[in-house]
């Protein structure tokens, strides 16, 4: 029987910093590399998160997984209070994946003066798509990611492609603010049905879950239709998703991978289709890369 080493669960910034410092020194004293890899999460871990942690373990010697449901990135009427919190199960999963530290601070630890007064702003793209539906969301996300980078000082940080606009904005923040961290992006992990894994899938009852599959099915139809151009890809996705009465589409857009602005109808080249919808009462997002010849 394999005995799993549980990661150390730490809830204060000072303690994490000193434990990290010691760990780095211990490894470095053996002459080995001591790369620190950060995986930021909000917990309620599923196989998508686990894929990120597996990648982190492959990339570095010290893996910090943060579990923090960041109040700054939730709007007043959003699901901050009901967001699933499953710390014990999360720690067990992280032991299986080989994480070194779990950083699970309270909101007071991260924001001792309440909502911190200094924020990172995501700029114009932060106001589009997810940002249009969730005002302030990306400022809150970038602020906490920047704080986590400063607390952990990772060599690498691992994010999921599932949150494509988030990846774009974190990449831009790293470049714009000259942060010393490299980004690693892991492909979206899906159920065999195609549905992208998400902590919010817990909230779907069976009819909503069946309807939610139309998002990934619509994206797959768009990827095939992209051979005929951007408008054909959009029509193909609408045909699949629009057939589901339980799905209230928020946006469906094809963006340029370097600017995240919508592409013109006659655009050719690499692109990404982004979709968001409320299914039953649960907001879901998904995306796929398109190659428009
Ligand atoms: P969250 O806990 O939802 O904030 O997500 C934490 C990280 O896990 C983010 O980088 C997400 O993009 C990533 N993630 C969430 N779901 C998936 C998935 N199905 N596949 C890959 N990465 C994911």
Automatic annotation (TrEMBL):
| Protein's recorded name | Pantothenate synthetase
Catalytic reaction annotation: (R)-pantoate + beta-alanine + ATP = (R)-pantothenate + AMP + diphosphate + H(+)
Q: Where is the active site?
A: 49 (proton donor)
Q: Taking the first listed entry, what is the main subcellular location of this protein, grouped into a coarse class? A: cytoplasm
Superkingdom of the organism of origin: Bacteria
The miscellaneous remark of the record is: The reaction proceeds by a bi uni uni bi ping pong mechanism.
Q: How does it assemble?
A: Homodimer.
Q: What does this protein do?
A: Catalyzes the condensation of pantoate with beta-alanine in an ATP-dependent reaction via a pantoyl-adenylate intermediate.
User: Which cellular compartments is it found in?
Assistant: Cytoplasm
Q: Does the keyword Ribonucleoprotein apply?
A: no
Pfam families per UniProt: Pantoate_ligase
UniProt cross-references to Gene3D superfamilies, sorted A to Z: HUPs (3.40.50.620), Pantoate-beta-alanine ligase, C-terminal domain (3.30.1300.10)
Under InterPro entries, the record lists:
Cyt_trans-like, Pantoate_ligase, Pantoate_ligase_C, Rossmann-like_a/b/a_fold
Pathway note: Cofactor biosynthesis; (R)-pantothenate biosynthesis; (R)-pantothenate from (R)-pantoate and beta-alanine: step 1/1
Keywords for this entry? ATP-binding, Cytoplasm, Ligase, Nucleotide-binding, Pantothenate biosynthesis
